[in-house]
Amino acid sequence: MAGILAWFWNERFWLPHNVTWADLKNTDEATFPQAEDLYLAFPLAFCIFMVRLIFERFVAKPCAIALNIQANGPQIAPPNAILEKVFTAITKHPDEKRLEGLSKQLDWDVRSIQRWFRQRRNQEKPSTLTRFCESMWRFSFYLYVFTYGVRFLKKTPWLWNTRHCWYNYPYQPLTTDLHYYYILELSFYWSLMFSQFTDIKRKDFGIMFLHHLVSIFLITFSYVNNMARVGTLVLCLHDSADALLEAAKMANYAKFQKMCDLLFLMFAMVFITTRLGIFPLWVLNTTLFESWEIVGPYPSWWVFNLLLLLVQGLNCFWSYLIVKIACKAVSRGKVSKDDRSDIESSSDDEDSEPPGKNPHTATTTNGTSGTNGYLLTGSCSMDD
């Protein structure tokens, strides 16, 4: 075990040339990031999750009720023992051959069986009230952490000149504000990692899981090798659009269509500007070029930048989805469907399908993160 730990914490991987872990030990004069500090994120992640449960029940739920958002879920599928057995024991998405067999067995037409399975799947989806409470929690947290980040960063020299991220690196002392910001963000992402398995399931579950995983690795990585200054820029920049998305989703659930459309437009503009403009031109420029010039590359430098490039790849993917929704909005006059559906269309939608459309093709409506992934049922279809 000692050999494995020594290999893992190899100074030649983590630190620049001629720097050792002993050089970054805390002293009376200066405090530096220590790997053991990150253990604090686990109990804090649990605390954040508990705060969320309390917030959703005693703050978000009364707000939803005041906005006349009901706890009613989708239409209930009529009881049918044969279809229920197929649904629970065999498949929730029967293929054409199975649909035809069930049609003969029950003397139902295929469209009615399709509708039953769709309604039965939707029964397992959360109500609009639940969705509103989740979005209000995320909106509140994102707004708080972004506001904190801006207030913290505007007092730092590296916000105004990113070369300060690398001057005197890695001997940059850890301030209380920076430590709090980092541990809070890390704790929140750990809470998302766990709650993602109980939250509303969406089609981009895998992408969001990868996003959370990369975020945790980046935060951990940059803290351990004291790249925390540039890490705060990454965090604040990526938090900037999230509150707008959650606000748009809340407006959608409350059926405030014009507000939803406006907020989504603001979100799209901020997201694309920050993720495809400012992030590569400002943050990636300093991590790839300014740091190379001032500090020089070393093994963990390469890993850190590869992770940032992976984040940029996710940003491009989500930007594509947002532009796709925006193009549909222009043609339909309102924010519309997304590929990241988490609830399927009503039977009325299917009944209105044009003749000649394959009746076995499932039709879905929104329901997105995305960042941090993004959209939902209804006209302004955004769900993270």
From TrEMBL:
Transmembrane residue ranges: 38-55, 180-198, 205-224, 260-282, 302-323
GO molecular function, one term: DNA binding
Topology class, membrane: Multi-pass membrane protein
InterPro entries noted in UniProt: HD, Homeodomain-like_sf, Lag1/Lac1-like, TLC-dom
CDD domains in UniProt: homeodomain
Residue ranges of domain TLC in the record: 130-331
Chief location of this protein within or outside the cell: endoplasmic reticulum
PROSITE patterns, per database record: HOMEOBOX_2, TLC
Gene Ontology CC: endoplasmic reticulum membrane; nucleus
Catalytic activity: sphinganine + octadecanoyl-CoA = N-(octadecanoyl)-sphinganine + CoA + H(+)
Boundaries of every Homeobox domain copy: 83-127
Listed pathway(s): Lipid metabolism; sphingolipid metabolism; Sphingolipid metabolism
GO biological process: ceramide biosynthetic process
DNA-binding region, residue intervals: 85-128
Gene3D superfamilies: Homeodomain-like
Record keyword Protein biosynthesis present: no
Composition skew (Low complexity), residue ranges: 361-384
Record's protein name: Ceramide synthase 6
Protein's organism: Callithrix jacchus
Taxonomy of the source species: Eukaryota, Metazoa, Chordata, Craniata, Vertebrata
Gene giving rise to this polypeptide: CERS6
